[in-house]
Amino acid sequence: MRRVVLASGNKGKIREIKELLKDYEVIPYTDLIDKFEIEENGNTFKENAIIKAKAVGERLKNEIVLADDSGISVPAFGGIPGIYSARFAGEGASDKDNLYKLIEELKKRGIKKTPAFYTAAIAIYTPYGIFTTHGFMRGEVIDEARGDKGFGYDPMFIPKGYDKTLGELEEEVKKSFSHRSKALSLAKYILDII
Ligand SMILES: O=c1[nH]c(=O)c2ncn([C@@H]3O[C@H](COP(=O)(O)OP(=O)(O)OP(=O)(O)O)[C@@H](O)[C@H]3O)c2[nH]1
Ligand SMILES: [Mg+2]
User: Fold this and answer.
1) Is the distance from CB of 14 to CB of 28 less than 8 angstroms?
2) Active-site residues: which are they?
Protein backbone atom coordinates (compact mmCIF):
# COMPACT_ATOMS: atom_id res chain seq x y z
CA MET A 1 0.00 0.00 0.00
CA ARG A 2 1.38 3.38 -0.95
CA ARG A 3 2.48 5.70 1.82
CA VAL A 4 1.41 9.30 2.33
CA VAL A 5 3.17 11.34 5.00
CA LEU A 6 1.12 14.09 6.66
CA ALA A 7 2.84 17.42 7.32
CA SER A 8 0.54 18.20 10.25
CA GLY A 9 0.65 18.27 14.02
CA ASN A 10 -3.14 18.61 14.41
CA LYS A 11 -4.64 15.40 15.86
CA GLY A 12 -8.18 16.19 14.66
CA LYS A 13 -6.98 16.66 11.08
CA ILE A 14 -4.75 13.58 11.17
CA ARG A 15 -7.70 11.46 12.36
CA GLU A 16 -9.99 12.79 9.61
CA ILE A 17 -7.40 12.48 6.83
CA LYS A 18 -6.60 8.86 7.82
CA GLU A 19 -10.31 8.12 7.68
CA LEU A 20 -10.68 9.78 4.26
CA LEU A 21 -7.61 8.19 2.62
CA LYS A 22 -8.40 4.59 3.48
CA ASP A 23 -6.55 3.20 0.44
CA TYR A 24 -3.23 4.65 1.58
CA GLU A 25 -0.92 4.09 4.48
CA VAL A 26 -1.19 7.51 6.14
CA ILE A 27 1.36 8.49 8.79
CA PRO A 28 2.14 11.80 10.50
CA TYR A 29 5.65 13.09 9.72
CA THR A 30 6.46 12.96 13.44
CA ASP A 31 6.53 9.13 13.12
CA LEU A 32 9.63 9.59 10.92
CA ILE A 33 11.42 12.71 12.19
CA ASP A 34 11.23 15.04 15.18
CA LYS A 35 8.53 17.68 15.19
CA PHE A 36 9.84 21.07 14.05
CA GLU A 37 8.41 24.57 13.81
CA ILE A 38 7.09 25.62 10.39
CA GLU A 39 6.38 29.32 9.97
CA GLU A 40 3.02 29.65 8.19
CA ASN A 41 3.73 33.07 6.72
CA GLY A 42 1.79 32.75 3.46
CA ASN A 43 -1.10 35.05 2.53
CA THR A 44 -3.53 32.31 1.54
CA PHE A 45 -4.55 28.79 2.64
CA LYS A 46 -2.91 27.50 -0.52
CA GLU A 47 0.42 29.22 0.17
CA ASN A 48 0.49 27.91 3.73
CA ALA A 49 -0.35 24.37 2.63
CA ILE A 50 2.54 24.52 0.13
CA ILE A 51 4.92 25.88 2.80
CA LYS A 52 4.09 22.95 5.11
CA ALA A 53 4.25 20.22 2.42
CA LYS A 54 7.58 21.56 1.11
CA ALA A 55 9.17 21.99 4.56
CA VAL A 56 8.48 18.35 5.43
CA GLY A 57 9.05 16.97 1.91
CA GLU A 58 12.52 18.49 1.73
CA ARG A 59 13.57 16.86 5.01
CA LEU A 60 12.50 13.38 3.92
CA LYS A 61 13.72 11.18 1.08
CA ASN A 62 11.35 9.77 -1.53
CA GLU A 63 8.11 10.40 0.34
CA ILE A 64 4.79 11.75 -0.88
CA VAL A 65 3.92 14.49 1.63
CA LEU A 66 0.45 15.93 2.08
CA ALA A 67 -0.35 19.13 4.01
CA ASP A 68 -3.71 20.66 4.92
CA ASP A 69 -4.16 24.34 5.65
CA SER A 70 -7.65 25.18 6.72
CA GLY A 71 -9.86 27.53 8.67
CA ILE A 72 -13.23 29.14 9.14
CA SER A 73 -14.35 32.49 7.69
CA VAL A 74 -17.23 34.72 8.78
CA PRO A 75 -18.22 37.08 5.93
CA ALA A 76 -20.18 39.44 8.25
CA PHE A 77 -16.93 40.10 10.14
CA GLY A 78 -14.78 40.63 7.03
CA GLY A 79 -13.80 36.96 6.67
CA ILE A 80 -12.10 36.51 10.06
CA PRO A 81 -10.45 34.41 11.36
CA GLY A 82 -9.67 32.85 7.91
CA ILE A 83 -6.01 31.88 7.59
CA TYR A 84 -5.52 33.00 11.21
CA SER A 85 -7.99 30.40 12.57
CA ALA A 86 -5.32 28.46 14.49
CA ARG A 87 -3.92 31.61 16.17
CA PHE A 88 -7.12 33.66 16.49
CA ALA A 89 -6.86 33.89 20.29
CA GLY A 90 -3.09 34.45 20.05
CA GLU A 91 0.09 32.51 19.26
CA GLY A 92 -0.10 29.02 20.84
CA ALA A 93 -3.86 29.30 21.52
CA SER A 94 -5.81 26.07 22.09
CA ASP A 95 -8.83 24.98 20.01
CA LYS A 96 -11.07 25.96 22.95
CA ASP A 97 -9.47 29.45 23.26
CA ASN A 98 -10.09 30.05 19.54
CA LEU A 99 -13.66 28.70 19.66
CA TYR A 100 -14.62 30.93 22.59
CA LYS A 101 -12.94 33.96 21.01
CA LEU A 102 -15.15 33.58 17.93
CA ILE A 103 -18.23 33.05 20.14
CA GLU A 104 -17.26 36.33 21.88
CA GLU A 105 -17.15 38.12 18.52
CA LEU A 106 -20.81 37.15 17.94
CA LYS A 107 -21.87 37.95 21.48
CA LYS A 108 -20.32 41.39 21.55
CA ARG A 109 -22.30 42.31 18.43
CA GLY A 110 -25.49 40.69 19.78
CA ILE A 111 -25.55 38.20 16.87
CA LYS A 112 -27.02 34.74 17.57
CA LYS A 113 -26.27 33.23 14.15
CA THR A 114 -24.45 34.30 10.97
CA PRO A 115 -23.25 32.60 7.76
CA ALA A 116 -19.76 31.08 7.78
CA PHE A 117 -17.70 28.68 5.71
CA TYR A 118 -14.73 26.40 6.13
CA THR A 119 -11.91 26.22 3.59
CA ALA A 120 -9.32 23.45 3.24
CA ALA A 121 -6.33 23.72 0.92
CA ILE A 122 -4.39 20.51 0.37
CA ALA A 123 -0.83 20.53 -0.99
CA ILE A 124 0.90 17.35 -2.18
CA TYR A 125 4.68 17.29 -2.46
CA THR A 126 5.74 14.76 -5.11
CA PRO A 127 8.77 13.97 -7.29
CA TYR A 128 6.89 15.81 -10.10
CA GLY A 129 6.24 19.04 -8.22
CA ILE A 130 3.68 20.33 -5.74
CA PHE A 131 -0.03 20.05 -6.51
CA THR A 132 -2.91 21.75 -4.69
CA THR A 133 -6.66 21.31 -4.31
CA HIS A 134 -9.41 23.12 -2.36
CA GLY A 135 -12.68 22.22 -0.68
CA PHE A 136 -15.34 24.29 1.10
CA MET A 137 -18.25 23.73 3.49
CA ARG A 138 -21.04 26.27 3.98
CA GLY A 139 -23.12 26.82 7.07
CA GLU A 140 -23.65 29.15 10.01
CA VAL A 141 -21.88 29.87 13.28
CA ILE A 142 -23.87 30.35 16.49
CA ASP A 143 -23.07 32.19 19.72
CA GLU A 144 -22.57 29.05 21.82
CA ALA A 145 -20.73 25.70 21.76
CA ARG A 146 -22.86 22.54 21.42
CA GLY A 147 -21.52 18.97 21.46
CA ASP A 148 -18.01 17.61 21.62
CA LYS A 149 -17.51 15.78 18.32
CA GLY A 150 -15.13 17.01 15.62
CA PHE A 151 -12.53 19.57 16.69
CA GLY A 152 -11.74 23.28 16.63
CA TYR A 153 -14.75 25.43 15.78
CA ASP A 154 -17.06 22.46 15.07
CA PRO A 155 -19.22 22.89 18.24
CA MET A 156 -20.38 26.33 17.00
CA PHE A 157 -20.79 25.42 13.29
CA ILE A 158 -24.14 24.30 11.84
CA PRO A 159 -23.72 22.94 8.29
CA LYS A 160 -26.19 24.11 5.63
CA GLY A 161 -29.36 21.99 5.69
CA TYR A 162 -28.96 20.87 9.33
CA ASP A 163 -30.13 22.19 12.69
CA LYS A 164 -27.36 20.71 14.82
CA THR A 165 -23.69 21.64 15.14
CA LEU A 166 -20.81 19.46 13.93
CA GLY A 167 -20.13 18.93 17.62
CA GLU A 168 -23.50 17.17 17.88
CA LEU A 169 -23.80 15.42 14.50
CA GLU A 170 -22.26 11.98 13.90
CA GLU A 171 -18.75 12.17 12.43
CA GLU A 172 -20.04 10.35 9.33
CA VAL A 173 -22.13 13.44 8.51
CA LYS A 174 -19.12 15.77 8.51
CA LYS A 175 -17.17 13.19 6.54
CA SER A 176 -19.81 13.12 3.80
CA PHE A 177 -19.45 16.80 2.79
CA SER A 178 -16.71 18.56 4.73
CA HIS A 179 -14.22 21.01 3.22
CA ARG A 180 -11.50 18.43 3.96
CA SER A 181 -13.42 15.54 2.31
CA LYS A 182 -13.98 17.58 -0.85
CA ALA A 183 -10.37 18.75 -1.10
CA LEU A 184 -9.12 15.22 -0.43
CA SER A 185 -11.40 13.61 -2.98
CA LEU A 186 -9.75 15.86 -5.59
CA ALA A 187 -6.32 15.11 -4.09
CA LYS A 188 -6.96 11.39 -4.70
CA TYR A 189 -6.81 11.98 -8.47
CA ILE A 190 -3.27 13.28 -7.97
CA LEU A 191 -2.25 10.53 -5.53
CA ASP A 192 -3.62 7.92 -7.94
CA ILE A 193 -1.33 8.95 -10.82
CA ILE A 194 1.94 9.25 -8.91
O1 LIG B 1 -13.76 22.93 13.86
C2 LIG B 1 -12.99 22.79 12.96
N3 LIG B 1 -13.23 21.81 12.04
C4 LIG B 1 -12.50 21.63 10.96
O5 LIG B 1 -12.76 20.72 10.16
C6 LIG B 1 -11.41 22.50 10.81
N7 LIG B 1 -10.48 22.62 9.88
C8 LIG B 1 -9.69 23.60 10.29
N9 LIG B 1 -10.10 24.12 11.45
C10 LIG B 1 -9.47 25.16 12.26
O11 LIG B 1 -8.64 25.94 11.45
C12 LIG B 1 -7.33 26.00 11.98
C13 LIG B 1 -6.39 25.26 11.09
O14 LIG B 1 -5.11 25.82 11.13
P15 LIG B 1 -3.90 25.12 10.39
O16 LIG B 1 -4.36 24.67 9.04
O17 LIG B 1 -2.69 25.92 10.46
O18 LIG B 1 -3.71 23.77 11.25
P19 LIG B 1 -2.95 23.51 12.62
O20 LIG B 1 -2.00 24.63 12.91
O21 LIG B 1 -3.94 23.20 13.65
O22 LIG B 1 -2.13 22.19 12.28
P23 LIG B 1 -1.01 22.00 11.12
O24 LIG B 1 -1.63 21.09 10.11
O25 LIG B 1 -0.70 23.35 10.55
O26 LIG B 1 0.14 21.36 11.80
C27 LIG B 1 -7.40 25.38 13.37
O28 LIG B 1 -7.68 26.39 14.32
C29 LIG B 1 -8.56 24.45 13.27
O30 LIG B 1 -9.20 24.27 14.49
C31 LIG B 1 -11.16 23.46 11.80
N32 LIG B 1 -11.94 23.60 12.86
MG1 LIG C 1 -0.84 25.39 11.47
Assistant:
1) yes
2) 69
What ligand 1 atom has the least distance to the C-alpha of 179?
Answer: 5
Closest Cα partner for 111 from 137, 85, 77, 83? 77
Report pLDDT for 85: 98
Mean pLDDT (the chain) is 97
The verdict on whether omega for the bond into residue 155 sits within 30 degrees of 0, i.e. cis, is no
179 known member of a binding site:
yes
Has this prediction a pTM greater than 0.95? Answer: yes
> Smallest Cα–Cα separation from 121: which of 7, 3, 5?
7
**Would you give the end-to-end CA distance of the chain in angstroms?**
13
Q: Is 11 annotated as a binding residue?
A: yes
Q: What is the pLDDT of residues 95-154, one digit of tens each?
A: 999 999 999 999 999 999 999 999 999 999 999 999 999 999 999 999 999 999 989 999
- Segments making up each domain of the chain, as ranges: 3-193
Q: Which CATH fold would you assign to the domain 3-193?
A: Maf protein (3.90.950)
How confident is the model at residue 161, as a pLDDT?
97
Q: Contact 154/167 with Cβ under 8 angstroms?
A: yes
Pocket of ligand 1 (CB under 6 A): 8-10, 13, 40, 52, 68-71, 85-86, 95, 98, 118, 150-154, 178, 180
